[in-house]
Amino acid sequence: MTDFARLLHADGPNPEHVAALQLYGRFVGDWDAEITAHGTDGTKHIAPGEIHFGWVLEGRAVQDVWIIPRPAGSPAFPIAGNWYGTTLRVYDPSISAWRISWFDPARCVFRQQIGRAHGEDIVQEGTTESGELTRWSFVEITGDSFHWLGEVKPAGAADWRLVVDVRAKRRKG
User: Fold this and answer.
1) What 3-state class would DSSP assign to 82?
2) Is the dihedral of CA 166, 89, 12, 18 positive or negative?
3) DSSP letter at 43?
4) In whole angstroms, what is the distance from residue 13 CA to residue 25 CA?
5) Nearest-CA neighbor of 58 among 4, 9, 3?
6) Which of 28, 104, 119, 137 has a CA between 20 and 30 Å from the CA of residue 64?
7) What is the CA radius of gyration of the chain?
8) What's residue 98's pLDDT?
């Protein structure tokens, strides 16, 4: 392992905020996913994907990589596009919430959100450069699965629109 990889990676949560860090820490590991993209016209497109979560930065953050669709060189996934991006999730005790940054350099998509527990779920909220509100939620969370919802609400719209939903299952072994 290079010094960079060794210094980025952490073996577990930092003891300073261990309980708070488990909000996302419970996802650490490798996941297979089924992704459904929802068009404004009611069309749906489904593709396989994979997600990998790990502890980073002395265990003070959780980083993930989302790859959709899984096969390298796959044609563009309708509506949502192909994802090969990473999220850095850092717990900020000053606001009792998580500061979240998503980077997908191939599609030039960059998002910032604030994430918090909402009952048994996790809800992340932010705004795009064009003023659309974003809401990304982890729901139906178990030790071996979760359902992720990616929603947008254009400025002036009354309702949220589901763009992508992901059903993930933890890889065995």
Assistant:
1) coil
2) negative
3) -
4) 7
5) 9
6) 119
7) 16
8) 98
Distance (Å, whole) CA 79 – CA 38: 7
Tokens read off for 71: 């096969």
pTM of the model: 0.91
Task: Please give the average pLDDT of every successive group of 10 residues along the chain, which has 173 residues.
Answer: 90 94 98 93 90 97 88 64 86 96 86 97 95 96 98 92 96 87
**pLDDT at residue 106 in the model:** 77
93 by Cβ neighbours in 10 Å (0-12 / 13-18 / 19+) ranks as exposed
Report residue 96: phi and psi, to 5°.
50, 45
Contact 35, 164 (CB under 8 A): yes
Place of tokens 């850095």: 88
pLDDT at 129: 87
Q: What are phi and psi of 48, to 5 degrees?
A: -80, 160
